[in-house]
Design goal:
Elements (H helix, E strand, L loop, with lengths): L2 H26 L14 H8 L7 E5 L3 H6 L4 H8 L23 E5 L5 H14 L6 E6 L6 H12 L4 E7 L2 E2 L2 E2 L19 E6 L3 H18 L3 E6 L17 H8 L3 H11 L3 H24 L16
Parallel strand pairs: 1-2, 1-3, 3-4, 4-8, 7-8
Antiparallel strand pairs: 5-6
Helix pairs in contact: 1-2, 1-9, 1-10, 2-7, 4-10, 5-6, 9-10
This protein binds thiamine diphosphate and magnesium ion.
The site of thiamine diphosphate has 13 residues, from β5.
Amino acid sequence: MDQELITDLFRQMLRIRRFEEEAARLYTERKIGGFLHLYIGQEAVAVGALSVLEKTDEVITAYRCHGHYLLRGGNARAGMSELLGKETGCAKGRGGSMHFYDVKNHFHGGWGIVGAQLPVAAGMALAKKYQGTKDVTLCFLGDGAVNIGSFHEGLSLAAVWKLPVIYIIENNQYAMGTPLEKTAPTEDLSIRAMGYPMASDIADGHDVFDVRAKVHTAVRRAREQSLPTLLEVKTYRYRGHSMADPGKYRTKEMLEKEKEKDPIKALGAKLDSLRLNQLREQIEQEIEEEIRDAVEFAEQAPFPAPETVMDYIYAE
Ligand SMILES: Cc1ncc(C[n+]2csc(CCOP(=O)(O)OP(=O)(O)O)c2C)c(N)n1
Ligand SMILES: [Mg+2]
């Protein structure tokens, strides 16, 4: 296997993990207001998926969005600043954790209303097709979004208009504290693609290479034939739904068992088995430095000036 690729995927996953571990620490120090939803445990999904994109492809997701932002080329300083509500944030401190945004890197948030991003993704894909580009749109959603009206609206439009969009269900088994078996009659959510119809697939979210391969196939279908795909990725979140969640709906043992499949640990071990441990340590150090710098920068950055509170509400 390509060493450069393994190393790069490891670096990307670890960068997200360390960014969020520091975010959790800052939250407990009460430096972050509002909600904080962590992606810890799910990193292989976004890393595998976004590793096959071109720079001009579009990405949109729900509120568990820090990783997707960082992967799209998002700056760690601007991300950390956004969490702290600072003027130097990627949404100028107005969005916070749930609303990271980076238009120049083709990253469109950060959506707090469950399922809201699905029809928007269809619209973005329609625009790109209409403009004659070969760009694709990747839309991430949670398993909790599959029973909401906009899931149907988005997928219907994608199928009827033959849109180059890939809907990726990040099935982490829970919608807040509700396990999937209480809301879905089947374990397999990807079968819902049959109703539209569109192509579908399932990937193992603990295996970054499997995610990458399945997304690659879907991206080719979108780019070459302008057809949509519904891809379900089975994953698991190690932290609570948000920082406010005590996680009483699962046992410690269940969680520990899931953590044995940690995609970052697995890839770190793979690097060691290839005798690349020195390189792994170097990557770890570089990431420590980047995240330390981001925290320091964000802590020192100014809050938005009070008189700008009405800015950016309407498009100008
Ligand atoms: C329309 C709507 N209904 C309810 C909520 C409250 N809510 C926030 S997150 C969430 C669960 C979503 O779970 P899932 O889609 O699986 O995403 P995950 O948090 O697991 O990533 C709910 C019900 C909301 N934000 N929007
Ligand atoms: Mg979920």
